[in-house]
Amino acid sequence: MEGNSRIVILLCLFSCLSAVSCKSRKRVTDCSVVQINLAKNATELLEESQLNFDDLTLRIKANYKSGSTNQGFAMNLKMKKDSFVFVSIQVMIEAARAYITKDSFTVLDRIGKKYYQGAISDLSQFTGQELTLTQLQNVIVGNPMYAASLFALRNDELRNDFLQHNSNGLNNNIHLSGCYKLLESEFKSVQSTSSATIRYSNFAKIKDLGFMPQLLQFDGTSKGKDIQMTMEYTSVITDPITPFVFKVPSKYEKAN
Questions:
Q1: The whole model's pTM is what?
Q2: What string of DSSP letters covers 2-21?
Q3: How would you classify the pairing of strands 253-254 and 114-119?
Q4: Distance (Å, rounded) from C-alpha 45 to C-alpha 6?
């Protein structure tokens, strides 16, 4: 299966190469088209293109696949820059809630009447990777997980340019569009077979934000387990979020 996938990818690459001339290496400005010839100041252009927000409310149509599991669900997500992320997950009824801050997280199992709490570093048991709040917010809006200044310009065997950053045994290669928006972010552990790829597409111009992806596609492998998840943003609102208090119901049992 893996061999067939590689053959398909190679065929696509050769098809693209045969369909374009030398002029194709000129820089493009389309936010939906990959930029294979990056400028020398690519990291500065990446920094300038990043999406900045204060408050965001998203309605999301999501799907999760792993093994025999194939589950669609809805998500309501609210977040305030560098402050918190709140998410409610509905599968016919509300199944879970989560509240994440700079220091900690709380997950409510609304069906099992249990809750999980821990330091932000413990969030890796759900994500498979240690993430800060800022990094999580960056992934959601289509910004690089790491600061743009940390990346270095690289090119592959076909002379296509990309940016790369290495952090604690984790390689992160990112591919940019013509307007230096993030189209694909690849993560690969140098110490294990774990890997992940996040793809962003369906860019739309959002009031007060600029261009933002409306579709996030995640493909990952960890401990021999394949995971696929898609998140389609059906509504993006930038109005200020009304302050609220996140509480654990008194009848809920602590699960960790």
A1: 0.84
A2: HHHHHHHHHHHHHHHHHH--
A3: parallel
A4: 32
Residue 76 CB neighbours (<10 A):
16
Q: Could you tell me how many helices (H) and strands (E) the chain has, helices first?
A: 4, 14
For domain 29-248, give the CATH number.
2.50.20.10
Residues forming beta bridges with residue 219, ordered by sequence position: 197, 228
Quote the tokens at residue 131.
């993430």
Task: Read off the amino acid at residue 189.
Answer: S
pLDDT at position 8 over 90: no
Q: With H, G, I as helix, E, B as strand and everything else as coil, classify residue 27.
A: coil
The predicted structure's pLDDT at residue 222 = 75
Task: Determine whether 180 is exposed, middle or buried from the number of CB atoms within 10 Å of its CB (0-12, 13-18, 19+).
Answer: buried
User: What residue spans define the domains of the chain?
Assistant: 29-248
CA 85 remoteness from chain centre: 14
User: Which pLDDT band, with edges at 50, 70 and 90, does 128 fall under?
Assistant: low
- To which H or E segment does residue 39 belong? none
Q: Which residue has the tokens 């690459």?
A: 13
The CA dihedral of 177, 180, 182, 185, to the nearest 10 degrees, is 90
Q: By the 8 A CB rule, do 128 and 222 touch?
A: yes
21 versus 180: which is more confidently predicted? 180
CA-CA-CA-CA torsion for 143, 145, 147, 148, nearest 10 degrees? -50
